């Protein structure tokens, strides 16, 4: 191990262990993370950027603590819908991973990279079907480090550095309608990043333990804003008796983000000055907890029972106060709290049977229960200073406050599942995987859905000289349809008879045929060991989505404005390629590379009849074969496709070089084929139907968006230009010096000095600040759905192991 | 591991459906906190009453938006005016000129909302009988739902003529006016025995205020008779009215109107009588109410100027059926039933304050006198244009319409684009030209 010391710096080493590394047939890719963080942000998903073919991690914003957009073969009618996100698990326990709408703090910041042993990426249908409706867009399983056997070990890591927004030019600022002086006041030239980690571990015959804590602080791109997170964790494994073992894992995190008004709460920076924000408050606080208990009982070497119970819990609270100097004589105060919990229990019986030396069978039957409960409460009030409001007392009482709003809602959901898998292994060259899962959901009247899958693997290495293996799989899974779509809702109409009798009626009727979206997936894959130092994997997948739920607007003799129905079909297919080379592997010098490429194409394969009368009317410019990610705008009176919001070729290249005690690594990420539509700051009109057509501004495109404001009024938004957002980015780069044995005399087993840089260089023709900044592919004039400037960062750290 | 016998496998497989079915209960979330969902909401009399009130509110929307009740009636007839942009268009019969208020007036959506509400309530009431509701509550709610549905269809056919059914059995089928009225009569007749003369409040005490804003026996009887008279069934109307009203003291009678209140739809006029007085030209006033007619006191007549304004005594109510209409409908029913003397007697009672002597009317002159008195007595109620249709007098009072126009359906309102969208309906022949 001296040749490849355990603590050698690198971003990640991608080990595609599905061929030789795992005894059973596993389609997943496994990223083994080094014990050093590869990202200067607190967001774990950024570790995966550019590492896995087909996994997009889009750095759309520079606001610290935000989540990047994560997509792993995910698609929906709305390509930016949250339901395209993959399932995240920690040690197989599903977790709440998407940010709450209240604080927007990323739950994947609750863990530090030092806690993660490896990351399993699950894309193939034979594994996804076993996860059912939880994982229509793949799954990412974070495997947590356990204590290592032997005496007590102490790991410590401290790092500090700066975030900075690279010099901006006037052209780009004007393009954003920002005033340069205001922008300079909001986007800090530098802000501090610091992180600390300490953990203690050990183990023996009794089991193992690992516990520790982390601290992270950063401002991101926005001056006077800030994000910080602290977490405590413990991972303990105990052998109760020979056949019976138990593992506890708990991670408790506090995350806090302070916002600011100018440039964040309000994106408008067109004025010359930024108001004093001394009294402004935008305080976002999250508490995140994951606790799990894993029991294993071995009846025999071939037969064991496993039960994993997990609780993923988060509270997100936001307190907002905007003083009068900002709101022109009025003050606004608001408070929101969002509590989310997900309780899961997963029990499985696992049995391995050897029929002969040639034929083996592994059987798993299991049951999973997932209960989630989300609750939100929010109040907000505004008050004029002349009515007694005060900048000094951050309270707006209901009396005399105008526009006081209160909101409360809750959502519960239950998922009960039964599944079984059969993994046949014949002569270690033919592998047959059979999966079946029944998902029962409280969302639907027809509760049960059935998800089967089958895959076949043929390893040619056993019969031929060809070092290749083929795999094909086909199966079905499902994508959840939201509760607003199935249970019907009543609505309050108004008061009657002295104002004390509220009339209600149906807003829409219950949708008894509600169901999950059906996804039929085909996978085909071949991997070849071209040379001992070069491995290539080439795969094709085809996902067909059927039966989305959408609204159909009813004729006005129905008495209901709309009803839900299912229909429409989409397709996502693509090629994925991974090339991994271990070019040189010597003591003094080593060089490894990983290149991954994904070429995707999504398309509409079926749209509902009479589309204009549905909530999918905005897709009317599309026909079969067009991309669902098409950007559509009007030209004259016709709507037409003017671009595409999703990349069609993307991936990453990672290189890892080591020379003696020095290690150098970098990851390039790239994306091609996506466009951004840039709304004009000049040509925007609110008017009734313009009789003479859209009045185009000089130098802009002939295209425009039209939004119905109700009451026959429309907003016409001109489009200044359409640009390609192709880019190549030096996502991460790092240099490390390892002291090796030099510090042994101080009882330091290993030490390393590490310098990491992130987002240091981006090559793109895009005229904005960040080619990934537009969530929807549209950079809106008010910068809605557009990220803040993405900072570059440089951090210097020291890691010690005692 | 011991081998499992085939019979054990069979038993396990047979057990599966039972396991899955018991899971159904676990997977059913009965109550969703803080949210009114359509499933399992109606579990108390109060909640069912909310649904009843919902029908009233949707009826109120149908008649209040853009002062619709007046536009469909005296506004279109040219008698009363309001300070509204669309007023001139309505009075000049320019009903398809495309402005937003007119397009809204030609949209029948709110009436069908009320019908859907009524049908929804009727569906929910079935299982509630005897479990949640007392027989009084059950009868009242069911009677109100039926009466309000009948009233909604009655308005629809008087405004648009042939209209589609919104009933589950034949939803979307276009019904001619005769068919609509026949159904209206059936529903009103079914409601009539269910509704009390006077309603009880939550404490079980008779409440005249509550009776006045909810369907009661007086109102449903008048509605039924009114509908029967549109069908030309004078004898049935007369028999029904006589059975209900003959010998009744005034204490058992009640007006019926829609209580005005807050509406979650900001487009709905909440106080139609305040801030925008309803005017009549003095010239028109003189023509309708001759000097000496005491009903002139219904108006504020300034010494100067060319207009007078209608006095609305109860500004918190949109009157639908006032007790004043009892004698008018009795008179009309008696006349159609061939009992002219009784008809004249009822008309004379109804027309207290008139300068004319209706004892001298003949079978030939009775209709004009009745129409005239309905005009005078019901001024502001929105009935005028409907009366002109029923008495076949549209051409006489609105000479801009030829016989041919009326044969093509000019007396009815055009349909909005929304109303003929995706349902196979066509625009009224007159208005499609």
Automatic annotation (TrEMBL), chain A:
It comes from Sphingobacterium alkalisoli. Gene3D superfamilies: TonB-dependent receptor, plug domain (2.170.130.10). One of its GO terms (cellular component) is cell outer membrane. It is found in: Cell outer membrane. It comes from the Bacteria. This is TonB-dependent receptor plug domain-containing protein. It holds the Pfam family Plug. Keywords: Cell outer membrane, Membrane, Transmembrane, Transmembrane beta strand, Transport. The keyword Membrane applies. The keyword Transport applies. Belongs to the TonB-dependent receptor family. It is a multi-pass membrane protein. Residues 34-138 form the TonB-dependent receptor plug domain.
């Amino acid at each position: 191990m001296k040749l490849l010391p355990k603590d050698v710096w690198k971003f990640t080493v991608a080990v595609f262990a599905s061929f030789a590394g795992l005894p059973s047939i596993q389609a997943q890719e496994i990223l083994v993370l080094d014990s050093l963080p590869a990202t200067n942000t607190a967001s774990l998903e950024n570790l995966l950027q550019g590492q896995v073919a087909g996994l997009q991690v889009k750095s759309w914003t520079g606001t610290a603590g935000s989540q990047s957009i994560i997509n792993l073969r995910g698609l929906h009618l709305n390509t930016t819908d949250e339901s395209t996100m993959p399932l995240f698990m920690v040690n197989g326990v599903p977790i709440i991973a998407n940010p709450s709408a209240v604080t927007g703090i990323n739950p994947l910041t609750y863990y530090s990279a030092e806690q993660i042993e490896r990351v399993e990426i699950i894309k193939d249908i034979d594994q996804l079907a076993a996860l059912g409706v939880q994982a229509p867009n793949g799954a990412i399983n974070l495997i947590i480090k356990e204590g290592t056997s032997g005496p007590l070990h102490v790991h410590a890591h401290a790092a500090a550095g700066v975030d900075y927004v690279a010099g901006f030019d006037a052209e780009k600022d004007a393009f954003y309608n920002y005033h340069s002086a205001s922008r300079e006041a909001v986007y800090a030239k530098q802000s501090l990043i610091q992180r600390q980690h300490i953990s203690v571990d050990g183990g023996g015959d009794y089991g193992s333990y690992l516990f520790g804590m982390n601290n992270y602080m950063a401002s991101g791109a926005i001056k006077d804003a800030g994000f910080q997170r602290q977490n405590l964790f413990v991972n303990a494994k105990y052998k109760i008796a020979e056949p019976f073992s138990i593992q506890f894992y708990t991670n408790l995190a506090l995350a806090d983000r302070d916002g600011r008004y100018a440039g964040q709460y309000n994106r408008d920076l067109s004025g010359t000055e930024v108001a004093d924000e001394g009294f402004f408050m935008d305080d976002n606080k999250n508490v995140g907890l994951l606790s799990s208990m894993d029991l294993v009982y071995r009846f025999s070497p071939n037969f064991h029972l496993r039960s994993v119970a997990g609780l993923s819990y988060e509270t997100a609270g936001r307190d907002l106060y905007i003083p009068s100097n900002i709101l022109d004589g009025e003050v606004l105060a608001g408070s929101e709290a969002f509590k989310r919990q997900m309780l899961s229990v997963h029990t499985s019986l696992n049995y391995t049977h050897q029929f002969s030396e040639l034929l083996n069978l592994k059987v798993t039957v299991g049951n999973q229960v997932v209960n989630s409960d989300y609750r939100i409460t929010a109040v907000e009030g505004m008050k004029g200073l002349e009515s007694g409001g005060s900048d000094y007392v951050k309270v707006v009482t209901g009396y005399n406050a105008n526009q006081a709003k209160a909101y409360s809602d809750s959502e519960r959901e239950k998922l009960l599942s039964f599944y079984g898998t059969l993994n046949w292994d014949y002569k270690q060259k033919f592998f047959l995987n059979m999966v079946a899962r029944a998902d029962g959901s409280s969302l639907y009247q027809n509760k049960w859905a059935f998800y089967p899958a089958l895959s076949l693997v043929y390893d040619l290495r056993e019969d031929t000289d060809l070092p290749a293996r083929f795999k094909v799989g086909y199966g079905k899974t499902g994508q959840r349809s939201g509760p607003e779509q199935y249970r019907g809702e009543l609505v309050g109409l108004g008061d009657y008879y002295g104002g004390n009798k509220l009339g209600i009626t149906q807003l829409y009727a219950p949708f008894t045929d509600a169901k999950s979206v059906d996804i039929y997936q085909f996978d085909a894959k071949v991997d070849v060991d071209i040379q001992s130092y070069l491995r290539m994997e080439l795969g094709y997948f085809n996902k067909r989505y059927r039966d989305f739920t959408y609204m159909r607007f009813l004729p006005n003799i129905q008495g209901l404005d709309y009803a839900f129905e299912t229909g429409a079909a989409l397709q996502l297919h693509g090629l994925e390629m991974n090339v991994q080379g271990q070019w040189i592997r010597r003591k003094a010098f080593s060089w490894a590379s990983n290149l991954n490429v994904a070429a995707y194409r999504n398309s509409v394969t079926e749209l509902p009849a009479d589309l204009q009368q549905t909530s999918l009317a905005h897709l009317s410019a599309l026909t079969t074969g067009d991309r669902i990610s098409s950007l559509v705008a009007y030209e004259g009176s016709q709507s037409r496709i003017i671009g595409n919001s999703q990349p069609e070729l993307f991936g990453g290249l990672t290189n890892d070089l080591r020379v003696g005690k020095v290690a150098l690594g970098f990851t390039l990420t790239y994306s091609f084929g996506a466009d951004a539509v840039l709304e004009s700051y000049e040509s925007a009109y609110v008017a009734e139907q313009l009789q003479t057509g859209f009045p185009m501004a000089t130098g802009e495109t002939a295209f425009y968006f039209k939004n119905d404001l109700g009451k026959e009024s429309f907003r016409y938004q001109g489009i200044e230009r359409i640009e390609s957002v192709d880019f190549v980015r030096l996502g991460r780069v790092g240099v490390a010096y390892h002291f090796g044995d030099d510090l042994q005399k101080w009882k330091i087993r290993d030490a390393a000095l590490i310098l990491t840089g992130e987002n240091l260089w981006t090559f793109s023709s895009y005229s904005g600040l960040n080619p990934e900044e537009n969530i929807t592919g549209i950079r809106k004039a008010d910068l809605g759905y557009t990220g803040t400037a993405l900072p570059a960062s440089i951090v210097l750290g020291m890691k010690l192991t005692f | 591991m011991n081998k499992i016998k085939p019979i054990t496998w069979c038993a396990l497989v047979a057990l599966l459906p039972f396991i899955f079915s018991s899971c159904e209960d676990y997977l059913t979330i009965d109550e969703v906190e803080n949210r009114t969902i359509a499933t399992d909401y109606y579990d108390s009399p109060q909640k069912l009453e909310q649904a009843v009130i919902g029908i009233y509110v949707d009826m109120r929307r149908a008649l209040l938006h853009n002062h619709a009740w007046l536009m469909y009636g005296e506004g279109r007839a040219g008698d009363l005016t309001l300070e509204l942009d669309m007023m001139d268009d309505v009075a000049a019969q320019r009903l398809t000129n495309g402005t937003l208020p007119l397009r809204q007036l030609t949209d029948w959506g709110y009436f069908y909302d009320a019908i859907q509400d009524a049908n929804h309530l009727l569906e929910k009431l079935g299982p509630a009988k005897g479990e949640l509701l007392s027989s009084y509550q059950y009868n009242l709610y069911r009677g109100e739902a039926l009466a309000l549905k009948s009233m909604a269809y009655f308005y629809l056919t008087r405004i648009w003529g042939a209209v589609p059914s919104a009933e589950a059995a034949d939803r979307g089928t276009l019904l001619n006016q005769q068919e609509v009225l026949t159904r209206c009569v059936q529903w009103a007749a079914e409601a009539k025995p269910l509704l009390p003369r006077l309603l009880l409040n939550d404490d079980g005490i008779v409440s005249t205020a509550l009776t006045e804003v909810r369907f009661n026996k007086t109102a449903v009887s008048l509605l039924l008779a009114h509908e029967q008279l549109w069908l030309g069934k004078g004898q049935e109307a007369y028999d029904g009215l006589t059975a209900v009203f003959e010998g009744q003291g005034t204490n058992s009678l009640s007006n019926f109107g829609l209580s005005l209140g807050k509406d979650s739809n900001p487009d709905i006029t909440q106080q139609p009588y305040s801030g925008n007085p309803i005017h009549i030209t003095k010239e028109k006033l003189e023509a309708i109410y001759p000097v000496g007619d005491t009903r002139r006191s219904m108006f504020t007549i300034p010494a100067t100027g060319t207009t007078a304004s209608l006095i609305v005594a109860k500004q918190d109510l949109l009157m639908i059926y006032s007790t004043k209409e009892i004698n008018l409908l009795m008179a009309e029913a008696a006349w159609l039933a061939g009992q002219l003397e009784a008809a004249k007697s009822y008309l004379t009672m109804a027309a207290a304050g008139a300068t004319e002597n209706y004892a001298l009317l003949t079978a030939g002159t009775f209709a004009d006198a009745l129409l005239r008195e309905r005009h005078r007595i019901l001024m502001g109620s929105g009935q005028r244009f409907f009366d002109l249709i029923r008495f076949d007098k549209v051409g006489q009072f609105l000479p801009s319409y030829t016989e041919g126009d009326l044969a093509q359906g000019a007396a009815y309102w055009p349909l909005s684009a929304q109303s003929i969208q995706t349902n196979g309906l066509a625009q009224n022949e007159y208005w499609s030209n």
